[in-house]
Amino acid sequence: MDNTILRVEELNIVFHTKHGHANAVNNVSFELKKGEKLGLVGESGSGKSVTSKSIIRLLQSPPAEITGRIYLNDTDLLKLPEKEMMNYRGNRISMIFQEPMVSLNPLFTIGNQMMEVLFRHQKISRDDARGKVTEMLKTVDIPSPQTRLKQYPFELSGGMRQRIMIAMSLLCNPEILIADEPTTALDVTIQAQILDLLNKLNEDYGTSIIFITHDLGVIAEMVDTVAVMYAGSIVEKATVQEFFSAPFHPYAEGLLYSIPGIRGDTEKLETISGSVPSIYQLSEGCAFHNRCKYVCNICRQKKPEIQDIDGHLVSCWKYTDAWKGAGTNAG
After folding, report:
1. What is d(CA 185, CA 320) in angstroms, rounded to the nearest whole number?
2. Residue 232 has pLDDT above 90, yes or no
3. How far apart are CA 24 and CA 3, in angstroms?
4. Could you say which of 19, 62, 137, 241 would form a disulfide bridge with 142 (CB–CB 3.0 to 4.6 Å)?
5. Which residues contact 244 (CB under 8 A, 6 or more apart)?
6. Is the bond preceding 106 in cis, omega lying within 30 degrees of 0?
7. At what angle do helices 158-170 and 126-139 cross, to 10 degrees?
8. pLDDT level of residue 281 (50, 70, 90 thresholds)
9. What's the CA dihedral at 223, 227, 228, 230 to 10 degrees?
10. Predicted structure pTM score
11. Residue of 163, 148, 161, 153 lying closest to 197 (CA atoms)
12. Cα separation of 331 and 328, whole Å?
């Protein structure tokens, strides 16, 4: 039985700016199953957050031009009128944003902001809404929830504001939760608490989670499946065990080799030479070719298709007959 809840197919996102056409996301496809935790990995500017915002239709058009298909079950979200999409956003799909202080309105109390979510999506009285909000604050381990309802965001710590955002995103019991760098700028103790909380919510509610981060330590602890993005494209997708034990794509390999160990002795970390190509001027070949130690002529000329190697997906010429025998750094 297919338990796929979200399908992203051939997603392309172009921003039309005064500097030109920025190809932020290029032909991205992936699936998310019910209860699955999927990690989107990549350095800043790789297209992770833009991809997630397109799922809940938060990109303004213009300047953004979005093509492709995004199915929640059998409904293509990209074809829904905005008024109908509002019934999905914050209800069936919720998002935890990267910076809770910016996401929470400083002019309204925590209680007013949280209850507004319930009033938008459910027929519920103010007393019942207040009770539901209080219970959700208890679920995310907020102390003295009745007091917190009357407070403003600036009166709370960063970790507590992030818990508020998580509680708010879960009020309507969404099928999918998108967590965009939910532990950024938090100290390690609070990070651990937030990650434990998300794992617990996934287990208790069966919520599917898309976890966006560049922190591979967080990915190792949190997700079932990893999708690596580079220059707006998914270049590798595998189970978390396969990804950390044997990465296929040279970029994913470079990311893992650049992580410091805990052996205590002095070690020289590897780096990925070169820089990320401009999204205004992507070449016709593989976007990683100018930084890749395995590069050959075809890498410069044509973008590789996704290869399925026993369920491990990779977009690299190295795993095709076209590369074999060509030699590295050829041409």
Report:
1. 42
2. yes
3. 29
4. 137
5. 220, 256
6. no
7. 120
8. confident
9. -140
10. 0.88
11. 163
12. 9
Helix 158-170 vs helix 110-121: crossing angle, to nearest 10: 20
Q: What is the pLDDT of residues 45-63, one digit of tens each?
A: 899 999 999 999 999 888 9
Structure tokens at 176: 């999918």
Write down how long the chain is.
Answer: 331
Closest CA to 23 of 287, 331, 245: 287
Which uninterrupted H or E stretch holds 312? strand 312-314
Which stretch of DSSP H or E encloses residue 293? none
Eight-class DSSP state of 92: T
Supply angle C-alpha 283, 288, 292, rounded to 5. Answer: 130
Which one, of 172, 224, 174, lies nearest residue 72 by Cα?
174
Query: What's the mean pLDDT in 261-286?
Result: 76
C-alpha dihedral sign at 104, 32, 43, 157:
positive
For residue 302, the number of C-alpha atoms closer than 13 Å in the C-beta half-sphere is 9
DSSP SS3 for 208: strand
Contact 41, 227 (CB under 8 A): yes
> What string of DSSP letters covers 140-197?
TT-SSHHHHTTS-GGGS-HHHHHHHHHHHHHTT--SEEEEESTTTT--HHHHHHHHHH
Q: Sort strands 176-180 and 93-96 into parallel, antiparallel or unpaired.
A: parallel
How many alpha carbons lie under 13 Å from residue 78 in its C-beta half-sphere?
23
